[in-house]
Please model this.
Amino acid sequence: VQLQASGGGLVQPGGSLRLSCAASGFTLAATTVAWFRQAPGKEREWISGMKRSNSNPFYTDSVKGRFTISRDTAKNTVYLQMNSLKPEDTAVYYCASGYRTITSTMRTLGGYDYWGQGTLVTVSS
Model:
């Protein structure tokens, strides 16, 4: 069972990146999926999620309108499209997946069973 995150890199302010998180050993569509990020010196924070029961996405206010989470069931992969990137978006980004995640735990670290290894996004000119 594994989540493999990729797609991070260095991008200028205003630019875009798409992160991918590929699952192996289990079916991603049967779980709630999420993206978290951890900036230097800060705690890991939830930024976006999608419940297994439906495809409605959820976002934290700081990324709403700029980031889009999506899931490709055929590829067993979840994506995070990030547009209009800002320097404050610089962080290590983690994907997560949970079978028993509910609304009250969706934004918490403990709400997930599996984690990707993280991919670094640096927004700088």
